Amino acid sequence: MKNTVQLLLILTFFNACNYKSQTESKKENDINFKIDSVKNTKIEKTLKNQLMKYLIAFNGGDPEKAISYCYPDIFIWMERQFPNDYNIESVKEMYRESINNLKKTAKEENLTYDFQIGEITNKIDLGNQKLYSVVVSIIAKKKFDEFKLGDEIIAISFDNGSNWKFIQKDPETAPSILKMKFSNEIVQQIMSN
Question: Does the global pTM surpass 0.85?
């Protein structure tokens, strides 16, 4: 059980619900994705599709692709916080180790897991710049037991929703990172529930 909780926490850290409304199901690389598609605009569908690609890259152990979907100011913040220890290769290695540990634990615990990309809970539209909060869950299954853990991801676009970058909605780190480009008022709005 401890390994199961660790598995879910690892996935939540890098990703980030069971809806009774209409959902799309997609299978990519042996992972099921359930995507809440009720009343989604074209921009929202693009966001959720790119979020799915990020999760596939992370789960597939492709750190370059996964990192390409991360909000770039994360890396500037990391470098400022850990000037003597930070380099992009160590971040890529951390991705590889995390996914290897995840797969090892899943195999040892006989777990399968699905991702669920849920509703958009908060939207800030600044013209071409958009900040949306999206609910992301992982459902780990072992025989008849099911564990579900969810979190929110902040999706950011600077080109009217054509391309999205993602950051975990962590109250301790996300505000500092977002304030590098956005006003305190905007950051408070996107961090609110």
Answer: no
